[in-house]
Amino acid sequence: MKVPNHIPPTIKLCNTSLGNLPAGVSIPSYDRSALTPGIVHIGLGNFHRAHQAWYLHRLMQQGLAQDWAIMGAGVRPNDEEQRLKLMAQDYMTTLIELSPEGFNAEVVGAMTDYIPVQQDNAPLIAQMALAEVRIVALTVTEGGYYIAPVTKEFDRTHPDMAFDAAHPTSPKTAFGAMVAALRLRRDSGTGPFTGLSCDNLQGNGNMLRQTVVSLARMSDPDLAEWIDTNCTFPNSMVDCIVPATGPKERELVRAIGIDDAVPVTHEKFRQWVIEDDFCAGRPAWDLVGATLTDKVHDFEAMKIRILNGGHQVISGIGELQSMATIADCMANESVATLFTKLAREEIAPFVKAVPGMTPNAYVDLIAQRFSNPHIVDTTRRVAFDGSSRHPGFVIPSIRDGISAGTPIDGLALVSAAWARMCEGTREDGTQIEPNDPFWDDLQRTAKLAQTNPVVWLLQSQYYGDLAKEPRFANAFCKWLQMIWAEGTEVTIDAYLAE
Q: What is the DSSP letter of 114?
């Protein structure tokens, strides 16, 4: 499609207007009024609507999966605002695929409802307790599973978990709501559902099982045993770059001629790899490109280490150098070379090949995807929640390099850039707004690390005992001192010259 030279009158996205949308916009061919729910999805952000909902929509376009419609859900107060926006357009979303060749637009209609958001989660619990709900899926970010970053154990001391254990019928979290619904299903004889994590956690199904079962055990050990025995939690790997929606994205959908309050842009690439372990059935996602396999770990390790880890490689540096987007970072020759060199030499050696893709070929693919100038993926979004993303995506590669005696200087530089970013100012003097759930603590430590770099590594909740590893600690201190003294550009050049 091409954007018209003049902005046409817009048509409000809703069921009755589908036939009047501009030519070239793909619309649902199925009867949305005949769909019945089968999935509750908690955390209905852009990624879910561009990824999991799209796969289901594609099945529905083939006349399949008509009893697997999605009911959206959320547990945060601002989720209610999203619910009202989607309700006003019959829960449909305009997806705009952006590539160097142009763009395509389609309307996805796989979601048919959004559960009202209440503090006690009563509507959500009631819906998940219904027999027709066979899958409860989540995208709640990798930092949202109440897992200790270093040990990966369930954090039973977290105030949210303590609250849910003390108030099992009126919990505040998604996991507490799942436990409450499963209690109702057990007691009524309805049976279990599958819990499907779609977050960037290695072994995300295992982590979801750990959180749900451990939380249940705090208030009802018998229920915990029933969940652990009867429910399934397949591991999965999800991949598609989906920027946040802002004024530019809303302007683009208006330029096409559609009035959509919550459009989603995305790259021309999707991947979904899932363990085929569903206790109550599943849609035939494999018919529309998803990979069902028992080797999910190899796929997710490649993606988490190289793509998600690669995002952290460049986003902190991008923030410091005032580069607005990931594509801007990759347009900088030094940053792009840093990414490729580091990924090939310090990350890829510990990643297994998967069918059709070697680790080095994947590095090249990710470099190409990151460089797409039409994907306005901000460095701020990618750098968000480094306190979860560095332990999850970067530090495991550091530990592998230490164990194997292979290079880790580039990964030490990435940690140094994160420490420098958390101080809160860019190299041009502008302020970096808080961008982490633990920003105040990180900023306080980052300021101390300016003169005593090792203080940063003593944050054992992220680094464990890495401060005691001389090869890593010495490299980190060297790079952080150089970044403060001479800037990131000189520091990157010094690394590339090694």
A: E
Domain stops at, among 293, 318, 336: 293
Q: What is the pLDDT of residues 48-60, one digit of tens each?
A: 999 999 999 999 9
- Answer whether residue 6 is part of any domain: no
SS percent in the chain: helix, strand, coil, step 5: 50, 15, 35
Q: Which of 293, 327, 345 is the last residue of a domain?
A: 293
| pLDDT tens track for 238-271 | 999 999 999 999 999 999 999 999 999 999 999 9
Asked if residue 304 and residue 282 are part of one domain, the reply reads no
Report the mean per-residue pLDDT for the chain. 96
> CA 272, CA 286: separation in Å to the nearest integer?
9
Considering its fold, how many domains does the chain have in total?
Answer: 2
> CA 360, CA 374: separation in Å to the nearest integer?
24
Structure tokens at 390: 């560095």
Compute the distance between CA of residue 418 and CA of residue 313 in angstroms, rounded to an integer. Answer: 9
Residue in 196, 173, 182 with CA at minimum distance from that of residue 224 = 182
Crossing angle of helices 439-449 and 409-422, rounded to 10°: 110
Residues 330 and 255 both lie in one domain? no
Cβ burial of 31 (10 Å; 0-12, 13-18, 19+) is exposed
Please check whether residue 411 lies inside any domain of the structure: yes
Supply the pTM of this predicted model: 0.90
3-state secondary structure (DSSP) of residue 352 = coil
Residue 376 is given by DSSP the state -
Domain that residue 85 falls in: 11-293
Token pair, residue 253, equals 């959908």
pLDDT at 142 over 90: no
Q: Is residue 132 part of a domain?
A: yes
Q: In CATH, what number is assigned to the domain containing residue 351?
A: 1.10.1040.10
Sheet holding 236-239, edge to edge: 236-239, 271-274, 291-292
